[in-house]
Amino acid sequence: MTDDDTRTVLAALSYYVGGALPATLIASASAHGLSLGGWVYPASTASATNPGHPTTQLQSLGASLRERAADAGMTMLIRGDAGWPAGTGCDELPCVWVGGGSDIAARLHHAVAVIGSAASTAYGEYIAAELGRDITAAGATVVTAASVGISARAVGGVLTQSCGMPVVITPAGLDHRSSSGVSRLVDHAVRRGSVLSPFPPGRLPTRSRLRTSLRLIAAVSAATVVVEAFAASLPMEVARGAASAGRVVCAVPGPVTSGVSAGCHQLIADKTARLVTSASEVMASIAAARRTTVDVRGCADEAAADTTGNDREHR
């Protein structure tokens, strides 16, 4: 299989990201190093009502998606491409589709996710804008969702900085536009930063794709900051998933009378998240986590060295 054929097959496999991979395509996915049963392909086999495209049609499907992306000015990245963010959650995807700047690796080298409710309050929007501005000023890239509310305000804060280059991740193909607010957000990100999707052109937003895109936001970021979230909400799922993956999770406290801050209070109370009130506290949390990791590795290295030394003494 040529490199171009591989790229075309991976484009086709991205059509199924966020849902069940048809049983007929499992072998093809495995051959390209893609795992099943995780957040990329939540189910390892498809139901009888979702047979998918036969392997003989993968090339034609992928070619169609690539042509559609090229016509819309999108870039398709696969592992090994210049700009591919190796070492992030993107490695689990068949490919990513990008609008705007395609050097995603540079964008995500120091990345902080800012997420929260679309039904935000004036308080939450103010905090999100401050975080967007100050995290950018601290030299990190703000990653967020293509959504109104907290995400839109965070991007607005980023764009007040001349160096601001946000990364916005969408729950649909990049050619999809929903509300005018989201369209403006995406347009701003294309002009100044990057818009990224794990889904090919033509894919519409669904609950499962929204969950997948939010999971990707946390997977590519050193830390996830939840500004406002209801107790039972997707941002809460993302925060807990990020914590389980060993990422730093922060949450901003709010009024005890506000239901949209209840999720943040839960995350803080059960020690899933660190309480933060500013970008400097977010950056300090990331630095502290890195020091802890280095300390643990240092202890492990010392123990290994001691073991090796003892082995030599007993020889």
Please sum up the structure shown:
By secondary structure, the chain is α/β, with parallel strands linked by helices. Helices cover 45% and strands 11% of the residues. The chain is globular and about 55 Å long.
Say how many strands there are: 9
How helix-rich are the residues, as a percent range? Answer: 40-55%
Strand content: 5-15%
Element pattern in H and E:
HHHEEHEHEHEHEHEHEHEH
User: What would you call the shape?
Assistant: globular
pLDDT averaged over residues: 89
**What is the distance, rounded to the nearest whole angstrom, between the alpha carbons of the first and last residues?**
52 Å
User: Rounded to an integer, what's the Rg over CA atoms?
Assistant: 21 Å
Main β-sheet: number of strands, strand sense, barrel status?
Answer: 9 strands, mixed
- Given the structure, what is the number of helices? 11
Structural class: alpha/beta
List unreliable stretches of 5+ residues. 45-49, 296-300
- Numbering strands along the chain, what is their spatial order in the largest sheet? 1-2-6-5-4-3-7-8-9
For this entry, give a set of tags:
single chain, 315 residues, alpha/beta, nine-stranded mixed beta sheet, 11% strand, globular
Structure report:
It is built from eleven helices and nine strands. The chain has 315 residues and is α/β, with parallel strands linked by helices. Helix 10 (262-269) links the parallel strand 8 (248-251) and strand 9 (274-275). Helix 1 (3-13) crosses helix 3 (58-71), helix 5 (122-137) runs parallel beside helix 6 (150-158) and helix 8 (207-219) runs parallel beside helix 9 (234-244). The longest helix is centred in the C-terminal third of the chain and has 36 residues, at 279-314.
